[in-house]
């Protein structure tokens, strides 16, 4: 096999490994936000009149939007979408007053865009099957300056931004003549715990007298075990560098 073909093959493998690794939440992480759109009042969302809940699905008509205010930076966002008509669907994240990132679904193209106090710029683009009238699952993973997008579990693109935008909320928008439907949205954010469960009523525990100790020993402080730094996908960003190193060694050997 020619060296150039080896280089291309390993680069593709490295990107696929990054996407597959980063799309899996760190062990023990649970969604910090989940929305099934069962409540027509859309609690927790700011939205236009063109965003309504119909039969347990968020339906957004042309030029409509729905936004959930939050302060998320690194995250994994998963949502099911269905497109009807010609136009674009946008999934926004790190959405603040000044800017946002967006995954734009413009059949058959999938684009990651960055917007800050002006027009949006493209960071990366790929293609994916986005048939009209059929549900597809879109997964967006953000880890530092890396943005990974998958459709139905298949890697679509990877993009980077050397000047990451600050944390922000998420949003769903429709542009053009399309009508977009959204369901089963989940967000897993690095370093954040899921909302606490409602405490169940319980009777007060009985007071048990504590016997007086005959001998008091000095307390020994336990040495805390080192804790890993919280993140979405530890080591995912290092995969491309390792893969490139492998390519370089094989290229010199040939």
CATH architecture of the largest domain: Sandwich
State the separation between the terminal residues, measured CA to CA: 10 Å
Strand content: 35-45%
Name given to the CATH homologous superfamily of the largest domain? Exo-inulinase, domain 1
Low-confidence regions: 4-10, 18-28, 199-206, 214-220, 222-254
The secondary-structure element order is: HEEEEEEEEEEEEEEEH
The top-level CATH class of the largest domain is Mainly Beta
Overall geometry? globular
Examine the coordinates and then state which fold CATH places here, giving the name of the CATH topology of the largest domain.
Jelly Rolls
Radius of gyration: 23 Å
Q: Multimeric state of these chains?
A: single chain
Number of domains: 2
Q: What is the SS-derived class?
A: mainly beta
**Number of helical segments with 4 or more residues:** 2
Q: How much helical structure, as a percent, in the residues?
A: 10-25%
Walk me through this protein's architecture.
The protein has 254 residues and is mainly β. The chain folds into two domains: 1-28 and 239-254, no CATH class; 31-189, Jelly Rolls, CATH 2.60.120. It is built from two helices and 15 strands. It has helices spanning 3-22, 239-253; strands spanning 33-35, 46-47, 51-54, 57-60, 65-72, 75-84, 87-95, 99-106, 109-116, 121-127, 136-143, 146-151, 154-160, 168-176, 179-189. Strands 1, 3, 4, 6, 11, 12, 13 and 15 form an eight-stranded antiparallel β-sheet that branches. Strand 3 and strand 4 (57-60) form a beta hairpin. Residues 4-10, 18-28, 199-206, 214-220 and 222-254 have low confidence and may be disordered.
